[in-house]
Amino acid sequence: MDFGVGYFPTHDGVRPGEIARRVEERGHAALYFAEHTHIPASRETPWPGGDVLPQKYSHTYDLFVALTAAAEATSRLRIGAGVCLVIERDPITTAKEVASVDHLSGGRLDFGVGIGWNREEMRNHGTDPRTRVRLFGERIKAMKEIWTREEASFHGEFVNFDRIWSWPKPAQKPNPPVLIGGGGESVVDRVLEYGDGWFPQWRDDNIAARVAELRAKADRYLQIQMLSVPPDPKALEKCAEAGVERASVWLPSGPWSVVEPALEKWEKAIGELVGR
Fold this sequence. Notes:
By secondary structure, the chain is α/β, with parallel strands linked by helices. The protein has helices at 16-25, 63-73, 91-104, 119-124, 132-148, 187-194, 207-217, 233-242, 256-274; strands spanning 2-7, 30-33, 78-85, 109-114, 152-155, 160-164, 178-181, 197-199, 223-226, 246-250. It has one domain: TIM Barrel.
């Protein structure tokens, strides 16, 4: 098992390229950026994390701008989306952005994707929350067609286009790993249908059972990564025992004086795990 970090790349915190460079220098395997195009001021949908939504959710840079800066600042670090809200994005444009970052980075992109939690945010992008899961699946499948075919077409319930040309193609073949976020009951089916791996948030009660279920049903290799793992060697040990291949912690957004202590705490937990 290796280790990474997640970060909301806000305009008032450590810049995307700078945090990527520092994370790479300290020997971590990967860096994931969160995505929200905006946060509706009505705040109708409750945030799953508590009563008060942190400011960083509405202050992030554009995901692919941040990923490009991270790619240019590093040479070995895996960079990725943790996660990209594809139900709020045009699939042809997003396929182009994913392929461009993967090509520019030399094949270092992990494409984490999710359906999101904020219903007003979805609606502002023209997405009906009631059909978002079907929309999500079609957009992933359509992007895979664009990445892997010289002349791509797609016809579905929500996504329709006749023959198109789109380059560059991703450096990774057949495409950057599509890591399906989420931890609901139906997520295993989504991973099996069109994912290259599973990318859930940390849950300490049933990690091993869920991973075992996915492995038992899969007819191909699937990556298992975990986000929001606490900086605790016991949590890391649970991940390793369950077969998680990469565990990542969320770092706070802000200046380096805020980020560094949290990163050091994560590194201490890793050290305690591997030193046993």
